[in-house]
Automatic annotation (TrEMBL):
Organism: Ligilactobacillus faecis
Lineage, highest ranks first: Bacteria, Bacillati, Bacillota, Bacilli, Lactobacillales
Domain of life: Bacteria
Protein name: Cytochrome b5 domain-containing protein
Domain named Cytochrome b5 heme-binding: residues: 5-76
Amino acid sequence: MEKEFDRKSLAKFDGRDGRPAYVAVDGIVYDVTNISAWKDGTHHGNHAGQDLSEAIKHAPHEKSVLAKLTKVGKLID
């Protein structure tokens, strides 16, 4: 069964102090922990542990990078 995250539980995965770094896009939660661009849970002003569905629309790579990431669950509201 797929793991479910609400915004509060997703926020715990902020990539700080050794915690894993997860981000949500369009309802899917991805693991960015081992992505060097996400060192310390931050990437170009965006923070792990959040829903970045809007922010990714403004990124130069848009959603093309998502295929390379591991899906860990889904975001529920």
